[in-house]
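Entry 12.
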Amino acid sequence: MRCLVVLFVSLVVQAEARTCDCAHNSARADGEQTQESVTWINDFLKNLYQMNSDNFFQLLAKTIEEQAGDNLPSFVNSVSLTKLDMVGVPAIDLVTHSVTTVVCDDVTFKRYTLDFDISLNSPGVMAAVKAVMVLGVSASITVEDVDIKGILRIEILLSSDVKFPAMQNVMMTFIDRPQVDFAVELYDLIGFDTFGIDKMIHNTVEDAIQEKLVYPGMMFWDMTGDNTTSTMMPNNPTLHPAVLSANITVTPLNVTQPRTSLEGWLDFGDDETKKTMLESGLANHQFDIFLQDFRYSSVRVRVMERFAIRSDITWLDVDVQIPTELRLGSLKRTYYSVYTDGRSSWNVTVDIWTMLLPSIQMMQSESGPALVPSLFTQTNCSDTAGENGVLYVKLHGAANLTISDNDVDSYVYIKLDGKMIGETDTNMRDINPVYDFEFEKLIRSTGKRLTDHTLEFTVYDWDRWSSDDLVGNVRLPLSKTLMVNEPVPVIRSGREQGKLFITMVFRPVPFF
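Predicted 3D structure (tokens):
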């Protein structure tokens, strides 16, 4: 541990000394490689790995076996990891670096966030896999010449409430989908690759990285106890890793004929969002979207003039590269153009802003579900964060639901400000059901305070032969105060009919 402390201090000092280089690195042209070797972060990562190598191997082996189960051809019974040798030393270039300090309830928290362009080239054998076929025939498979490129984020959380060296936890994740290339060699069976096993291994490794190491999936080290423990936090498909905000402004420069048929479009993957602009040549519209799983690397922003009897005209068309925006560290970027038809002209401006959302990771403790500690979950006691942000809600389950016939087949409707969010599955004949229903919602202030928004849970008892019976309701105003697996009474006609267990976390987002 002493070696790790020294390396950490070196990391912090050198990162702060390199702050002036961050703008230079962020502005470096795509494809240009730095010649500088950041040995201090390499040593830090190596020591973390060596301290937890056995646990890391077991976690990765379990992940690969789980992922392989979804891709195995019919003639392969199982695939297991038998060797992992992390011999490659990555080339790392610091992109951005930030330090956040918060004092809350007399405890000082400090978070160091470092983003790196990372390139790992590991010649030779990095991993070995054993595949067992039908009839008990086995084959050895090696993964060789691994090449990984991506944006690696490392967050170190310090707390004055933790004994020296005050490190509470360390998180490591990719904040984009990394490029992964490697060779697969097969032994013991001639012509085995013709059955597509090499492609299956490729898919398994890529899926394992996406599942466990792309944000909000992460490698997590807990250092609060006597021994450092590590775990892989899964990439929860319900959680969104980032948000993007786009503001489209159209202003007249020299107008002889106003326009009344402008549309703004925001395209992300298969989703298209359209807003009509009908302000006679003056328009300002805001788009806020979740970025899901970094499956798509760009967002397309368009401003178009629509016509009924002739072709539409594009005033502005921009492809926004998400990895590039994330490298800016939540700074606003502006794209603009001037459209003219020969007689009139307009200035078209698009402001783009992205933010990686603070992670919300649930874990099972002795007392029930709990949040994995982070700077956000430890310090969300400030009222200065504003009314805009992302709401996370999880309905864990219920306890002691009561109804007249004592045969409860419960389900729950969830609404926000009267609008339907979703419905849980029906739990048959269970007064203590488990729902595990969760969702995220963007909240942008429209003159309301956060506490003016209301979350409503309505519990029903399903009935096959008649209309469903109302068990009771829960109404909660939104709040910046953390609510984690908290029991809340279900009320009907002033009487308690049981309890719901709810987690509610509001993460402030400084939308412009």
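Annotation: The radius of gyration is 26 Å. Residues 1-6, 13-37 have pLDDT under 50 and may be disordered.
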